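ENTRY TYPE: paired fold submission
RECORD: A
CONTENT: sequence, then structure tokens
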Amino acid sequence: MRRPSAPAGCRGVRSTDRKVFTISEDDGIDWYKMKLFTLTLVAVACLAQTAPPPEPETYDIFYALPKDQSAKLVSLERQQIRSKTKVSGFIVMGMKDSSEITGGRSRVRFAAGQPIEFVVRSAFAVAGIDPNTFYALRLLHNKKDKREIIFMMGHATPIGASTSSDLASGVLPVEFSKYGKSSYKVTTPALKPGEYALGGATMPQVIYCFGVD
């Protein structure tokens, strides 16, 4: 019976009735280039998996970082704050100075009991200044049709008055770290269900709201 011939460009080496074929230089295959191309593909794939999403384009706007880092940044609910001073009562009067946000519940929701990561582009990121001086996470007081930050409360009677103010009302601790060239990553502790907002540390005019369930 006639044995099959070796493929073109290969030399058969007889060893215990088996043939071992070796590829000759005549095949014209540049193995070095092939190996380099393969390594390049692997490197590109690794970079695509580990590269963070792009930084925000605009300063002082907060976004949530997606768990899938290849996805886009998640927009929060942007709200303009309305300052309001309320005085009530007749003989005994109550006073409240607060900032109100329209709607009792944010449309942007996250799961409770786990840290959440946000990012903000900041002019202070390259200056080495403590970001806690400028930014803060707040727990909001929520009612049926509004959310609020209470900065001052007091009462007055015919014989006197007393007030208490707290510009850091509702502020919760967060961890800041550098993110990219011009941004901060903001990592919260595990949050309980409620309504929250990120924004300026003192009397903010615009805040970025979200809720936790």
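RECORD: B
CONTENT: sequence, then structure tokens
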Amino acid sequence: MDGEVAQHIEYVPFGKVFIEERNNSWNTPYLFNAKEFDEETGMYYYGARYYDPRLSLWISVDPISNYDPRNRENYLNGKHNGGVYNSYNLYPYGYCYQNPIRLIDPNGKQVDVTITDKVVGYTDIRLIVPNSIKNAPQTMQVPLYQTIVSDATTKEQSEYAVTRDALWAIKGNKEHIFVQNSAFEPRTEVGNYSGIIVDYPKNSALKAVLLLNAKGTNKLEASLERTPPPGGIIGFASSVMLHVGGKYQRKDGGTYITGSLGCSGIYKQKDGQFIGGNEAVTDFINDIQGRQSVNKDKSLQIQYISRDAVNWRQNIDSVNSKTDE
């Protein structure tokens, strides 16, 4: 075709064709969201059901809106995208929760990341300390929790580990430092979120997974026991990510150690122990993106299992008060 444009199409948000230009030498039937368009019915075929872009509606109900033992997931058990506890799922004909600018509705071939409540090891994270406190330790030990990456297409599982605690010093004296934990814990027993891959931290060339709610924003409902960091709102957490854990290197060659006000640090097992840093998070992201490539679907579902007990507040010895025994 000698570099000429064969087909030019623009859409309104819900998929109806707004502008279409063809040179008639070759035209693809795969249009909006790369789904096949049936010219006779004016509908798109998504695998599980047909979608009518003129009405902005599916022509049949969501196949997991009712219980069917053949389906791996359903809304009745509250697990998939919040299930019946997410009001948007109570309208099984709606497309993308009526928000097609932010969300897509693929065909169920998403990659799943499950953050469990099973402790598999321990590591040190940076204790976030204000300048007014001079005698606090730089790091504190926290548990690592089993994390599983899977997808329905390859049926393979990979295991990682993440931190779930977010420690910051709020005040101190000569003997003790008072530490607050702003760990992100879902408000329900199981929290279900979508995820997108973003660049983070700055100047590191690394990537992270940002969690989004059903509306496509990063404001998540959190445990009411959580005390948010300054400027936060009780019962909510924003910009929660799965990012590099432990010590990592930035582009300037410097080594830094991660802290957190609600995110999780990623670790992997190597030579019988868990390591964080650039290698672990790079392997984690590559694992996800590799599965997305196989699935031909960039959907990513993140599931957080609530912990039975979280140490929200604690007193620790100040650096100056420690003595050798």
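NOTES ON RECORD B: The chain has one helix and 22 strands. Confidence is low (pLDDT under 50) at residues 321-325.
STATUS: closed
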